[in-house]
Amino acid sequence: MTSSNGPSAADPISLVVVTGMSGSGKSVALAVLEDQGFYCVDNLPVALISPLVKSQQARGTRQMALAADVRVGADLAHLEKALSELRAEGIGLTVLFLNARSDILLQRYSETRRRHPLSLLSEENRDDTGESMTLMECIEHEREILAPLQHLGIPVDTSDLRSSALRTWLRAFLKLDTSGLVLLFQSFAFKAGIPLDADLVFDLRCLPNPHYVAELKALTGKDPPVEAYLSGHEQVGAMVTDIGDYLDKWLPCYVQEQRSYLTVALGCTGGQHRSVYGAEQLAKRFAGSWPVMVRHRSLIQRGLS
Q1: Of the candidates 195, 180, 198, which has an alpha carbon nearest to the alpha carbon of residue 251?
Q2: Cα distance between residue 98 and residue 159, in whole Å
Q3: CB 182 within 8 A of CB 293
Q4: Burial 219-253 (b: 16+ CB within 10 A, else e)
Q5: Where do runs of H (alpha helix) occur along the chain?
Q6: Rounded Cα gap, residues 258 and 253, in angstroms
Q7: Model confidence, pTM
Q8: From 172's CA, which of 58, 119, 130, 187 has a CA 20 to 30 Å away?
Q9: Are the C-beta atoms of residues 245 and 166 closer than 8 Å to each other?
Q10: CA atoms within 13 A on the CB side of 257
Q11: pLDDT above 90: residue 259
């Protein structure tokens, strides 16, 4: 309970742990959290997480954010146990697992000219010839190290997200009530690849394409003329209804699995018309029953959303 004199040590603390691939945007995420008033610590040894959280809670800190990744070394293997203990003690915990395609990570490192955390010479990080690993080898080795931890957090694929788009998504997400399952409807372009954070993927490329209608080509699935065009085709409505019915049937199973999120990805060729329309229509259908978010990857990338 919070009194007029400020928070007490008995008040619950909210902790966000950011982990994932180096170069996937963890620094951006931590900066967003700090701007939102979170007490932030980067690269904290796992063994110190619990003592720091308890210390800050005793001091009246209500919001904390920590970044934990391969920089902590072998200690990272104990992260799952440490987080489980915090949850058992009543700490409100949200874990974000940021990821990106290897080619994107390679491009980002090439642009910034920063060294990968695993690139430092050591016996553990040398290949069979005794030479240090290449950048791509470091990225793939890091992916192997982090694979056992992916299930701990909400997956966020930042491959096609600019820093500004990632910041916008995080601010929107942090305002949601994460006590129940959050539905994220995400449109994407198949030509850009399936998002890494997708739990369910639906292919809408078989539906009529507004791209081939001259007056609709430059518009998006959020524009009324495109909505009118797509809603006028029976198969479009049938597809959206079938996907919605599928979710109605199986969402309770995901809830029983104690998941806090479900990313439903809808794809079309360019990610501009059909998938956007489908995501928007499904979001409207479920908005009254579940916490809902909508993200249009291709529109964000093109500055159309």
Answers
A1: 180
A2: 10
A3: yes
A4: bbbbbeebbebbeeeeebeebbeebbeebeeebee
A5: 26-35, 49-58, 79-88, 102-112, 135-146, 163-174, 224-231, 234-256, 274-286, 297-302
A6: 9
A7: 0.70
A8: 58
A9: no
A10: 12
A11: no
